[in-house]
Amino acid sequence: MKFPLQRNIMTLKRKLISFDWAIKKVLRSKANFGILEGFLSELLFTDITILEVLESEANKETSEEKYNRVDIKVRDAKGKILIIEVQYSREMDYFQRILYGACKVITEHLPEGAAYADVTKIISVNILYHELGTGDDYIYHGTTHFIGLHKHTELALSKAQQKLYPAEQIADLYPEYYLINVKNFDDIAKDRLDEWVYFLKNEEIKDNFKAKGLQEAKQKLDVLKMNPSDRQDYELYQTKLHHDASIYQSTYVLGQINGIEQGIEQERAKNQLEKLAMAKKMQQQGMAIETIAELTGLSKAEIANIS
Which residues does 186 contact at the CB level (< 8 Å), separation at least 6? Predict the structure, then answer.
């Protein structure tokens, strides 16, 4: 009896360039602005148009660059001009670093002699691949508010200040921070922003994803479309990331484990000394060795050797 031949069809994931490499090498090009515009539009819930990539000391590309960051001037759907700093990092000392980064962007892009009212709104977008605090969410949004100590009311802008800046509330003047902790994402895309987070975590874009910029990313960030030289550089970069992760594992993590173990041993030694000191006092009071052993948990030999 003959059976028709069946073909096993495997759907392979298209390997896409990691987002940190894309920020460093691909997304600075005007031809690829649509990818970043899509990501930022979904994150900020407003249509974002990139006006230019802002060059600064932090944007210089070197083989030893520790952080991946790009500063971009954008316009939102209301015509408001913003500077958005996008960072992709695996470092641990991050809370103070994002504060430093936002302040640096302000000072770098405020014209000399300009009034403070000309300070541009900064939005710091941080894509994290390490633990940061103890929260269980995967996207956090931080803003600045001034709350009264006594009446607990929020300080607001006056009508004149709203016209000067312009802004509706004080928080609109200060940097905003978005922290995207991809490790906490459960891989279930419930909305279009989740589709972006899925890509950031898995370097894969599913066919049914509809978020802005993702289909363009699927075409332009395909590893298979890289020229041989760029692909070799990318593979070396990925190897370096694995190497850095191994170093971190062997230094920071193992160091923590060793520190915990040392702490346990020190605590045990301290408890032992306290027991011996107690046993010595009991001996001086004429208590029997059996009784001392029962009360302290020491062996009779340990008690007998107390000097």
Answer: none
The answer to whether position 6 is within a domain reads no
CA 235 to chain centre: 23
Contact 209, 39 (CB under 8 A): no
Instruction: State which residues form the domain around 277.
Output: 245-304
What does the block give as tokens for 76? 């939102």
9, part of any domain? no
Q: Rounded to whole angstroms, how far apart are CA atoms 46 and 37?
A: 10
Same domain, 219 and 70: yes
Residues in Cβ contact with 84 at an 8 Å cutoff, skipping those fewer than 6 apart:
40, 48, 71, 72, 74, 122, 123, 124, 125
Helices (H), 12-82: 19-25, 33-44
- Neighbouring CB atoms inside 10 A of 234's CB total 16
**What average pLDDT does the segment 270-278 reach?**
80
203 Cβ neighbours under 8 A, 6+ residues apart: 15, 16, 17, 18, 19
* 216-264 pLDDT per residue, tens: 998 888 876 777 777 777 777 767 665 555 655 555 555 555 666 666 7
The average confidence (pLDDT) of the chain is 80
Q: Which residue has the tokens 């991946």?
A: 68
Residues 156 and 183: their CA atoms lie apart, in Å, by 37
Q: Is 3 inside a domain boundary?
A: no
Q: How far apart are CA 77 and CA 127, in angstroms?
A: 24
Q: Is the pTM of this model over 0.70?
A: no
CB 28 within 8 A of CB 22: no
Q: Starting from the edge strand earliest in sequence, which strands make up the sheet with 81-89, in order?
A: 49-54, 68-75, 81-89, 121-128, 176-181, 139-142
Asked whether residue 201 falls in the same domain as residue 258, the answer is no
Last residue of one domain, picked from the residues 225, 256, 273: 225
1 domain residue, yes or no? no
